[in-house]
Amino acid sequence: MNEFETIVNHIKHPDHRGQIKELFSWIEQSYPELVSVVKWNQPMYTAHGTYIIGFSFSKNHFAVSPETVTIKHFTADIEQAGYDHTQNIIRIKWGQAIDYSLIKKMIDFNITDKADHKNFWR
After folding, report:
1. In terms of pTM, does the model score above 0.90?
2. Which residues form the YdhG-like domain (predicted)?
3. Nearest CA to 85 among 107, 62, 119, 116?
4. Which residues of 24-37 are buried (b: 16+ CB within 10 A; e: fewer)?
């Protein structure tokens, strides 16, 4: 069992676990070039050693963390999707529809914006 599976299997509610498995499967099928890693006990995806997007889980929601620059860039889209956010995370309530087109925009933005980036974080 890989580290992602171990973390996902710690999500107690089967519907929540299924929602995350579906999201991760979509990312891995859409972006086979991304590397799945676990750092700080959080699943994340990287490209050429730089952070692209990460996730964390709580009782009422899961958080999407694409970095502050990306959240600022897509604030209107995030709010239009009905997601709560801070400058560092986007909260998607369990059972709330995942806006895959927004996830795609954020991943694409980070891949392009960080193409020549040498560090893990911006």
Report:
1. yes
2. 17-111
3. 62
4. beebeeebeebeee
Please provide the average confidence, as pLDDT, over all residues in the chain: 94
3-state secondary structure of 94: coil
Strand pairing category for 84-85 and 61-65: unpaired
Give the three-class secondary structure for 106. helix
Q: Is residue 11 one of the residues assigned to a domain? A: yes
Number of domain units in the chain: 1
Q: Is the pLDDT of residue 44 over 90?
A: yes
Q: At 55, which CATH number? A: 3.90.1150.200
Instruction: Judge whether 12 lies within some domain.
Output: yes
Residue 117, in any domain of the structure: no
Domain that holds residue 18: 3-111
Q: What is the mean pLDDT of residues 8-30?
A: 94
pLDDT at res. 5: 86
- Give me the sign of the Cα torsion angle 23, 62, 65, 79: positive
Look at residue 116 and tell me if it is in a domain.
no
Coil, helix or strand at residue 2 = coil
